[in-house]
Amino acid sequence: MSTIPEPEPARPWRPSDGPEPEVSTWPPGDRPALEVWSAGKWRYAAVTARQDWADGTIRYQVLVDLLGDTTVTSRTYQWPQPGLRRCHGSGSQPSRTADEQRQGGMPQAPPRRPRTGPQGRSATGR
Questions:
Q1: What is the pLDDT of residue 110?
Q2: pTM above 0.70, yes or no
Q3: What is the 3-state secondary structure (H, E, C) of the chain?
């Protein structure tokens, strides 16, 4: 039996905490990752954002399968904690701008091509 405690999720920022945290993100295909101790195993956790709070604390928002049943959930953890460890870094520089490409926004529909050929009711144009 392990003595590693499961990490405690961090509470969200509130106005009474002072200035809003600075948030950094990475492109979806090149995110850093942590490992989260959960249900007796280290679980892979892709970092979706890093929050640097005015009080000097750091929080990581991650996507993690806490039970190993393929149900991925979003959690935010204050760093460091015994139940968290670094898995790997990113080859990309973090961004502090709201860039939809980095956030994994909804895909855009391809542009429609203009119609060519007969525009009547039948394929022969009659």
A1: 65
A2: yes
A3: CCCCCCCCECCCCCHHHCCCCEEEECCHHHCCEEEEEECCEEEEEEEEEEEECCCCCEEEEEEECCCCCCCCEEEEEEECCCCEEEEECCCCCCECCCCHHHHCCCCCCCCCCCCCCCCCCCCCCC
